[in-house]
Amino acid sequence: MILIDGKKVAAELREELKQEVSKLKSKINKVPGLTVILIGELAPSKIYVKMKEKAANEVGLKSEVIRYPENVEEKTILEKINKLNVDKSVSGILVQLPLPKHIDKQKVIETISPKKDVDGFHPINVGNLSSGYDSCIPCTPLGCYLLLKNFEKNLTGKKAVVIGRSNLNGKPMTQLLLKENCTVTITHSKTKDLKGECLKADIIIAAVGIPKLVKGDWVKKDAIVIDVGINKTDDGIVGDVEFDEVSKIAKAITPVPGGVGPMTIACLLKNTIECFKKNI
Fold first, then answer.
1. For residue 280, what pLDDT is reported?
2. Is 101 a known active-site residue?
């Protein structure tokens, strides 16, 4: 079994991005700018935003965090996004989720310019990805894709099973695998004989949010397993895969933590730089 080290791959990607930002600065005397909007005092959100800010600064991006209290009016957020949309110093806009109940998440997502939508959630980016056109790709699926490609260059003809059908992970992951000429089956918690589907797979992407769902006898020998799950349990943070069992069978597997997570933030930086280059 080979451990797919997300920390290592993410560090290598961040170093590449740092060099790219340095070249952009020396060439045109400008750097990409990432603005994050944080609403409320949710501890996990504050931690994620701090990590994103630190990573952005490390690669040389212009980083800004705009903070609002939880009771901020929706129109205030929408007005701020519209100002950021026309601000030439801002390459990427991210509104940290989840949002307070009185703020319409979809309205917020659709207000962000597709050209600055570094989360890849805007319907235009979703549609472009689905249609095979150029788009901003959601960071977690992009991170999974890059981990896969880092380990196995040629995915053509492989059978992939995606567990999870969310707009955030499952659906965009499916599109990325199809682009690589995989035969893709989308499954979920209601799928009949989920174990049987997984046993057919050369690649398993587990992104359903059920702790240790995928067992050792669900995985065929030499399968590649990417675990997107981050579940808080009495045993600590665990993935959607029973790591101890599956690692004895699989050819390669990502750990939790230390697998997909670091890649998500690195891909946010990558998306910001890509948006900057397209917009100039």
1. 83
2. no
Residue in this structure with the two tokens 């690669």, named with its chain if needed: 59
- Pick the catalytic residue from 5, 62, 80, 96: 96
Residue 121 covered by a domain: no
Q: Do residues 154 and 102 share a domain? A: no
Number of domains in the chain: 2
Both tokens of residue 189? Answer: 């918690």
Domain holding 155: CATH number?
3.40.50.720
- What average pLDDT does the segment 33-51 reach? 96
Same domain, 256 and 210: yes
Which residue among 5, 52, 202, 212 is the active-site one? 52
Q: How far from 231 is each of 41, 140, 176, 234, 236, CA to CA, in Å?
A: 21, 16, 24, 10, 8
The answer to whether residue 175 is catalytic is no
Q: Look at residues 97, 113, 129 and tell me which one is the last residue of a structural domain.
A: 113
**pLDDT per position as a tens digit, 218-269:** 999 999 999 999 999 988 999 999 999 999 999 999 999 999 999 999 999 9
Which of 119, 202, 227, 240 is catalytic? The answer is 119
96 is known as an active-site residue: yes
- Domain of residue 221 covers 139-261
Q: Note whether 237 and 209 are within 8 A (CB).
A: no
